[in-house]
Each structure stands twice: as C-alpha cells, then as structure tokens.
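User: Here's a structure from my thesis project, written as structure tokens. My advisor, Dr. K., wants to see whether a designed sequence matches the one we expressed. Can you design one independently, without my sequence as a hint?
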C-alpha cells in the first residue's frame, strides 16, 4: 500500500439533529468517530478538506484524525452525499488499532501490458464490461492495499472473463468476496447494444426515478 500519511484535524461538534443543516450551509460537514464500543465522538470539519481526504483515502487507506489533543487512526466507513448537488453531508470514521486486522473496501483495476492502455479484446474492437468495482479484504491497517489489480491480458475473445480469484493479492491480505465472482467480461458491441435496447426505459421514467430517490434521501436527512 501507499505509505503516505493522511491527516485531518476535526473539531468537536456541539450541533446535532436538524440543526446540522446550518453548519453545512457554512461549508462544514458533520462527522462521527466510532471508537471500539466507546461513546461515539461527534465532530465536524471543513468540507473542502474532507472531500480531499476522502478522495485520497477512499474507504481503504488509514486516516489520522486529530481532535483536540487526541489522535485516532481511522478508516472512513461511510460518506453521504446529497443527490441533488453531490454535496458531502456526513462522514463516519471507524477508529482502528494498528495491531488488529480490519475489513476494508479496496478498488479493483485492470493491469495492462507495458505500453498498452487496453486489453487485447479492446484493442480488437470488443467491449470489456466490469461487474465489480471493489472487493472487501481483511488485513492489518498498514497492510491495506490502495488497489487490487487483475491481469487484463487474459481478456482476448468474446466470453473471456476474470474472477475474484484472478486478482493479484499480497500475501498478508485476504479477500473476503466469493472467489468465483466475475469481475469483468468480454462482449461483442452488437450484443450490448441489443441488450440496452431491450432493457431501456423512457427518459421520463428515468427522471421520475431520480426525483423519487432524491426525495427519499432528503427525508432521511431530516
């Protein structure tokens, strides 16, 4: 994994419940730190800084969180965004111990041959569709990888696929997902187009679904 240390300073939060809307409007994001069964620590931080930390750490890179005189090694457990404007609305940190294994969500990427930016199948005009963007792993916090790769050179012809068992995994990391789960598959472009035509709904139906999802999220935040 990357050894870069990610640090953020957060402040104790006195505002809770519906009143957190006011601090969000001021560029502050409410957050909480769960600490091994102890009372949760309610905190808040600058929205720009929290966005930056989440972009760098995701849900797999340890984040050192400093609150007053105390410092916690954490993993980001959950981040909530407004569906209307994608504004970050809440962050959940889990405190972790350096010597205890944790579970984390690790992104999955294709690894191409040197000098290539696509698999053999894609270079031949075929499509490679991914069905898994990340997997759950177990490891010590400092052993968590930033990404797990699969060998994209195995994807050559229609029907070729890679599975979880094909991932290149460090010896001190255990993948929790089913080994036979498919990660990516090669398709003919014409087959994808036909499937999209058969499954596609109307534009109006898509907009209605989006509006319903947004309303449900806003109601939950209330």
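Assistant: Designed independently from the structure alone:
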């Amino acid at each position: 994994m990357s050894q870069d240390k990610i640090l953020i300073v957060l402040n104790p939060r006195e505002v809770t419940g519906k009143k957190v809307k006011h601090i969000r409007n001021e560029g502050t994001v409410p957050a909480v730190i769960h600490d091994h069964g102890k009372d949760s620590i309610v905190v808040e931080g600058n929205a720009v800084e929290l966005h930056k930390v989440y972009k760098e750490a995701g849900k797999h890179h340890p984040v050192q969180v400093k609150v007053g005189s105390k410092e916690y090694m954490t993993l980001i457990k959950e981040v909530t965004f407004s569906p209307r404007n994608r504004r970050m609305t809440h962050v959940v940190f889990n405190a972790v111990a350096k010597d205890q294994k944790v579970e984390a969500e690790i992104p999955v990427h294709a690894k191409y041959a040197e000098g290539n930016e696509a698999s053999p199948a894609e270079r031949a005009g075929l499509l490679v569709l991914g069905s898994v963007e990340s997997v759950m792993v177990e490891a010590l916090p400092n052993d968590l990888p930033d990404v797990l790769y699969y060998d994209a050179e195995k994807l050559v012809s229609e029907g070729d696929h890679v599975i979880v068992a094909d991932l290149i995994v460090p010896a001190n990391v255990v993948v929790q997902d089913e080994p036979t789960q498919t990660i990516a598959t090669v398709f003919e472009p014409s087959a994808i187009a036909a499937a999209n035509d058969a499954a596609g709904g109307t534009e109006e139906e898509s907009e209605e679904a989006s509006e319903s999802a947004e309303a449900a999220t806003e109601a939950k935040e209330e």
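When you compare it with your expressed construct, this may help: Residues 102-199 form a domain with the RNA Polymerase Alpha Subunit; Chain A, domain 2 fold (CATH 2.170.120.20).
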